[in-house]
């Protein structure tokens, strides 16, 4: 007489406990990320500025023309520009969107809402210029003097090195 082989359907209690324990562990690890969204937005924004600074430096070196970044602490925005002729600045084109390279953090519904540019210090102004070697200057065309930085939410600072233009992120 042959006995039919039963196939198992469902889960054992131990399998269910392991899966639930795993999901709880993931929740515990992810919870702090979701509760501190303004901090995460500021971190993302400071990394974006750092990337855009590098882009402006590379654009100056590749086009053998100067580029600059104008920071506006009132509107929490900045724009990248290139010098088309001496003293004549035009918007730098964003490589992905093919639009003017303008970034605004303010505004409800923005992925950066809640991010505030609290300071932009480059000599006597809030503009940094890069020459054809990628070296930084203040908005008046003088060699950049330290401290030179952009500060977000009074918590993160993007510091510019006067000699090389390298930018470092510092948590305040």
- What oligomeric state do the depicted chains represent? single chain
Count structural domains.
Answer: 1
What is the mean predicted local confidence, pLDDT? 87
What does the largest sheet look like?
A: 6 strands, antiparallel
- The CATH topology label is minor pseudopilin epsh fold
CATH superfamily: minor pseudopilin epsh domain
CATH architecture: 3-Layer(bab) Sandwich
Q: Which bin fits the share of residues in helices?
A: 25-40%
> How much is the radius of gyration in Å?
25 Å
Give the overall form: elongated
Number of strands: 10
Classify the beta-strand content into a percent band.
25-35%
Ends: how far apart?
A: 79 Å
Low-confidence stretches: none
Question: Could you walk me through the main structural features you see in this protein, from its secondary elements to its overall organization?
Answer:
- The protein is an alpha+beta fold.
- The protein has one domain (37-171): minor pseudopilin epsh domain (minor pseudopilin epsh fold), CATH 3.55.40.
- The protein is built from two helices and ten strands, in the order ααββββββββββ.
- Strands 1, 2, 3, 4, 6 and 7 form a six-stranded antiparallel β-sheet that branches.
- A hairpin with a 4-residue loop joins strand 1 and strand 2.
- The N and C termini lie far apart (79 Å).
């Amino acid at each position: 007489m042959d006995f039919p082989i039963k196939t198992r359907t469902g889960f054992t209690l131990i399998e269910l406990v392991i899966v639930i324990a795993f999901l709880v562990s993931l929740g515990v690890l992810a919870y702090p990320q979701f509760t501190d969204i303004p901090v995460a937005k500021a971190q993302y924004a400071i990394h974006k500025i750092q990337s855009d600074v590098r882009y402006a430096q590379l654009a100056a070196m590749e086009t053998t023309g100067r580029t600059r970044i104008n920071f506006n602490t009132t509107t929490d925005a900045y724009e990248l520009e290139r010098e088309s002729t001496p003293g004549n600045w035009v918007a730098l084109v964003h490589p992905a969107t093919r639009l003017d390279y303008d970034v605004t953090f303010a505004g409800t519904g923005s992925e950066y809402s809640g991010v505030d540019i609290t300071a932009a210090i480059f000599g006597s102004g809030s503009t940094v210029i890069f020459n054809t070697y990628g070296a930084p200057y203040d908005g008046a065309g003088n060699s950049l003097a330290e401290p030179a930085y952009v500060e977000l939410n009074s918590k993160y600072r993007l510091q510019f090195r006067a000699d090389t233009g390298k930018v470092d992120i510092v948590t305040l």
